[in-house]
Automatic annotation (TrEMBL):
Gene for this chain: A04p013030.1_BraROA
Protein's recorded name: Calponin-homology (CH) domain-containing protein
UniProt domain Calponin-homology (CH): residue ranges: 122-239, 267-370, 393-499, 514-622
Cleaved signal peptide residues: none
PANTHER family reported in the protein's UniProt record: FIMBRIN-5, FIMBRIN/PLASTIN
Natural source organism: Brassica rapa subsp. trilocularis
Keywords assigned by UniProt, alphabetized: Actin-binding, Cytoplasm, Cytoskeleton, Repeat
Major subcellular location class: cytoplasm
Low complexity bias (residue ranges): 652-668
Subcellular location(s) of the protein: Cytoplasm, Cytoskeleton
Presence of keyword Repeat: yes
Subunit text: Interacts with F-actin.
Superkingdom in the source lineage: Eukaryota
Keyword Cytoplasm: yes
Amino acid sequence: MSSYVGVVVSDPELHSQFTQVELRTLKSKFNSNKTLLDRVTVGDLPPVLAKLNAFSGTFDADEIKSVLDKSYPDADQEVDFETFLRAFLSVQARGVEKSGGSKGSSSFLKTSTTTVHHAINEAEKASYVSHVNSYLRDDPFLKSYLPIDPATNAFFDLVKDGVLLCKLINLAVPGTIDERAINTKKILNPWERNENLTLGLNSAKAIGCTVVNIGTQDIAEGRPYLVLGLISQIIKIQMLADLNFKKTPSLFQLVDDTQDAEELMGLAPEKVLLKWMNFHLKKAGYEKQVTNFSSDVKDGEAYAYLLNALAPEHSTHVTLETKDPTERAKRVLEQAEKMDCKRYLSPKDIVDGSANLNLAFVAQIFQHRNGLIDDSSKSTSFAEMMTDDVETSREERCFRLWINSLGTATYVNNVFEDLRNGWVLLEVLDKVSPGSVNWKHANKPPIKMPFKKVENCNEVIKIGKELRFSLVNVAGNDIVQGNKKLLLAFLWQLMRYTMLQLLKNLRSHSQGKEITDADILNWANRKVKRVGRTSQADSFRDKNLSSGIFFLELLTAVEPRVVNWSLVTSGETEEDKKLNATYIISVARKLGCSIFLLPEDIIEVNPKMMLILAASIMYWSLQQQSDTESNVSEDATDEGDANSVTGEISNLSLDEASESSPSSQDQELVTKADEDDVDDGNNKDA
């Protein structure tokens, strides 16, 4: 695997306005039009730009023409790529003015990657540096680089090799990355650095970060606004990790009845934090309602009430009696320090209403002292609602993270709650099958009338049937009612469809034949056999897959350097299986696979996740070969060459399946499993 070289723009200032993902997308669009038209002129730009997602619904071609006429009056002027980029920025800047301001407003979880404003918040930078210095100071590898001086750019330099990114992810969600897969040397070559960054970005997606429009090259270049945007999401996930009922059952004290508890379970962690804060403020006699971590807390009064309620031993009326907001904020921080809350923000950050830093501050207070009484009887009665089996919980997590990785406009916090109005499912369908959704028939949230939700979900089922999903006796109302089995069955088919379409698109230039589950299994077995390995899989239900050896051999077959076999166990004991499974997931992400399964899925041989894992590795492998072939003349590749995509595809016919004996069960993996789920779901109260 060679190191990635991004799109290069000669003007550094212009280059800095775009991420590598954006540059690649725009370069592809520009080149395709140049090929089509031979030469691109200013007059050609309006219809081209109007079709870009960035301007969809904002500008039509005529409006774009009026914007460009001011800077480029000569419609016959030939346009090169850099002029095309400047024209894009001109239209984008007009779009910001049209919408009434900048898109750069801070959202701690779903950070914008807009290319209009790249100013970084120095206070947030200092806070994140302080966080890194505090939590990673004893890390065996990083301790020689810490502490970082927040007044310098050392933080952005340290991120460039990917090690810090991976370590922060494991702080946020322990065990996400097998640290044996991280390349930790003083000096990394470009290939090793790219591996770390790929592992970091794919793992960030796997814990719920939004990394749309961020590539490894952007992090390798240490782009401050992108680095801070990603780091802020990771730190937020760490800080809010305890705001759920499994880790903090006493949160049930925030509600009075079952219905309220169900609503609370579906809230985003930051919403739960607000509810917790208001719970204590009300008891303390604070009459206002805190609805945000910015304007509602900037006077420091709410903090004074909260800390007095949580730590009466440090209670003081001086803070409340102080009139000056900055002085009051100073006293608030002094009182918080007595509770061992480290100071990651300044009085000015409170007074300025910095949403990210105030949220982190409240989350830290919650971690140190949540003030909730451990009422086991009440917690137990509410906990009975959380009857999801382990597999259901894992699948919900997998599909939630996958949906959020697609970059849909709506962020999903809970699949079973957030998808019931049908809108998010329509967004996902439009992403994976562009043009499939007729948005004129869709009802946009907030939706108060139940029948409007049913209309959305009926449209979802209609599109699913058009995509040939197995939806026997399934209606939109089943989704609205929250039938978990049916929803998971639908999402599984949607994820599988997406993966198979990606594979089909790679092979479209050769045969155009539909990819099947058996094709994927046959490809994997052939790959492993070709490199002299002995493992073979009878099906994606083969219990021998639990050792992990087959997938490690498959990863070695597609990239010989990626697996360190000295770290691999025999996979005979449960402990050895877990070590191998954890390593497989990290190695696959390090290679470039975007996957969302857990080690338990491999150990227990979850056939759905086994299929997706194999398909992801296959997609990466064929993609690399396709990229290589695009740089090689046709006569350099023999027909049916096993190293070519065409050769790989031509050898995937089911007539040859007997060579590696893929089970016929796997051809029916989706249809049979989902029909069973549908039958079970329809025989059960929704």
